[in-house]
Write the structure tokens for this entry.
Amino acid sequence: MNQSVEFAFRSTSEADTERLAERLAAQFQPGTVIALDGDLGAGKTRFSQAVAKALGITEVVNSPTFTIIKEYEGADLPLYHMDVYRISMAEADELGLDDYFYGDGVSLVEWSSIITPILPPKYLHLFIQSDGEHERVMRLTAYGEPYVTWVNELKRMGV
Ligand SMILES: Nc1ncnc2c1ncn2[C@@H]1O[C@H](COP(=O)(O)OP(=O)(O)OP(=O)(O)O)[C@@H](O)[C@H]1O
Ligand SMILES: [Mg+2]
């Protein structure tokens, strides 16, 4: 069983959300999986855009709700941006997402809770909760290494 560690952070602006994304992106490596959840408009895509920027991606990053998966070429790592809002668990199972999860890049999965059974055993979960126009509560849960180390570092140093 994976060890899990949690950390909650209050973002009071998009700049705060960008800072969290930058802190995390600095640690990313091939096969990093970040699972994102939270209501419509919570900030899953906004966070993903900040990750893309931190990875040196200059293309515009939007919610891939209709395409489900979009690939971007970063400076060092490819980014696989997924949004599984419109598909079922069974459909997701047929997409072969493991090729992305265990691939050379970083996977960001919006609405990940729909496909929890097929997420890899180790990943970082970010749950974003709106709390006013600009305020967001960001709840990170790390399942396994290296995510546990990353989250412990955020707990120790702050965002
Ligand atoms: N502190 C904040 N952090 C992130 N986004 C914020 C913050 N404050 C305001 N916002 C705004 O919240 C909105 C978040 O929208 P976004 O498209 O990222 O949501 P989403 O979770 O991807 O929704 P969907 O499920 O529809 O894809 C953006 O308009 C962004 O400007
Ligand atoms: Mg989105």
Summary: Residues 11, 13-14, 16-17, 38, 40-46, 63, 110, 134, 136 surround adenosine-5'-triphosphate (ligand 1) (CB under 6 Å). Strands lie at 4-11, 33-37, 69-73, 78-83, 106-110, 123-130, 136-143.
